[in-house]
Amino acid sequence: MSVRVYKFGGASLSDIEKIKYVAQYLKKEQKTHSLPIIVVVSAMGKTTDEFIGLAQSVAVKPKRRELDMLLTSGERISMALLSLALNDLGVSAISLTGSQAGIITDSSHGNARIRATRPIRLEAHLQKGEVVVLAGFQGVSEQEKEVTTLGRGGSDTTAVAMAAHFKSSICDFKKDVGGVFSADPKIVPHAKHLPQLHFRHLMDMTFWGGKVLHYRAAELAGALHIPLRLSHFMRPVEQTIVSGENPMMEEQRILSINSHKNVHRVFFAKVSQEEILEQLFQHLKEKEVPFPQILASHSTEVGTRLLLTGEGQAADYQTLGSHRFEQLASVTLTCHGSVNSDLLPQILKHLNGTNIKIWEVLQDSTNLTLVVDRENREKAIQVLHTLI
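The structure corresponding to this sequence follows.
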């Protein structure tokens, strides 16, 4: 069965008027296209943040299992309201949770990974001509049959998984911005719109902090070659198409600037990289905290330095014997092709006289990353965007 998959973000569902607008849009889409429709939804607006705040108000360290039970209710509210709005317009629709739709995950509460999709019930509703409104961000663990969540932004991954299962020609993401830009428009108002991207570009951007899509969704789309359309939910002509096509050959220009707001640089004296990573993994597992994203690591006979972004706190590292803990930020320039050998000298020239301290420089084939003071993050993005 071939289907159309749409994903609506929290901003596009943040109030009742927007939910009604989305319902009207989907009614028009159903009339325009003959294929069945799956709509993946996020929680309304800032609901997830509000639920996390509620959990922390009653528990200093909320258990991950219970937190998943709480957080998944945000998407359930969205799916029920949108399904009600569609039915009110005469569009036959039904809402399904991740578990009802057969999203099978591992047992990692808070950051589960999809292991399989078995949408038997979902397919039955599609065959009846119903629009299926699916709660994103959630699934059910295969062994324990527990409700799980896929991590922040996990609704994006739900949508790509559905598009992959049904071999959709494209997966449509409806957002409050018109696609992908050369920087966060909230930080750089004149950021350039990028109408077309390769999967690799999107993976680089999201790995290094771009919020336009969940990194795992970009990774899954690239691995399975699922084209993506990212567009404004009210102005669909404003869009970015992400596919395997690469319109330019070896152009070395800077494509975008992305950033991690919270980066931890931690030093452990007289301990190997293998030892400290194993200890850190065990410590965070016992605390039911997802393992942080490792941006870089360096080990010598003096000790091991880790560069991380994630939920870990200073106390976690101090428990393991850290000798130094610094709260920093990263700013990454992603290039269309390989990093130009002249890029770092250009960066240093642009930052000269700005009082922006560079703590570290990281480079791979297509990305050059600066580790800077957290308070200078936005300033560094604005200054370096002039290079694009």
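The chain has two domains: 4-243, 254-385.
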